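We close this part of the discussion by returning to an individual protein. The sequence in question and its C-alpha cells are set out directly beneath this paragraph:
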Amino acid sequence: MRRRMLAATLLLLPLVFGFGCRRSELLLVGTLERTRVELAAPIAERIAEIPSREGDLVKKGDVVLRFDTSVMGPQYADAASQAEQARADLRRSEQLYSEKVISQEEYDRASHTARQKLALADEWKARLEQLTVRAPSDARVDELPFEIGERPRAGDIIAVLLSQDVPYARIFLPEPSLAALQVGDAAQVRVDGIDRWLDGKVRKISHVANFTPYFALTDREKSRLVFETEVDVTDPEAQKLPTG
C-alpha cells in the first residue's frame, strides 16, 4: 500500500517558567504517525482467508485473517467429545459414590480423568481460536504481507494495523531546547492540507540523543543532537488524516 508523506509543523508552547517569564515558541518539522500494531502468526499453518484489505477500517474483534483449520479442527472436536464423555462419567460416578456403590478411590480416579479431559479440550480450543486472527482494537489495516495459500512461519508478521486512537506527531527536539520542554506541555500542529493550527500535547520526550534525521536537515544542522519527541494531536479533525 502506497503512503502519502504528510508533513507536520509544530509550534511548541512550553509552560511558563517563573513568574512573569515569557512563553517561548519553537517551530519544528516532523511526521504524523499512528501506533503500529503488528500481528504475528501463532503457528506455521496455511492461510485460508483474508477478509480485510489494506486500507480497510476494522473494529476491535473483527477478523483480519484466518488460518486453515482442517487439521486442528477435528483434533479439537475429538478432545471436546472425550471431555463431554468424561463429564458424563463423572456425574454418574458422583451418583454411585453417594449411594456407596463405588469406593473413594474409584471416584477420585473418575474425577482425575474428567479434569484431564476437560483441560485437554480447553487447550485445543485455545489453539483453534488462535487460527482466527482478530483486531485487538479499532484500527486501519496497513500491511498484509502474505496471501491466501501461503504458510508463514510461527512468529512471522502477518498483518500490520494502525491504531485509530489519537494520532501523534513525531518530531526531533534540538538539544538546546530540551530543558524548556516537558511532557504534558501544550503544542500546536500545522498539517499539510489543513489551513489552521491543531491542538496537541507533548506525550513523550526521549532521553537518548540522536543526530538530526534527513528530512529535518539543513546544512548547518547535520551534526546537531536532537531528542525524539511525540506530540498527541488531540484535535478531532486529526482523526481523518493519513499517516506518514
In short: The chain has two helices and 13 strands. Residues 72-98 form the longest helix (27 residues).
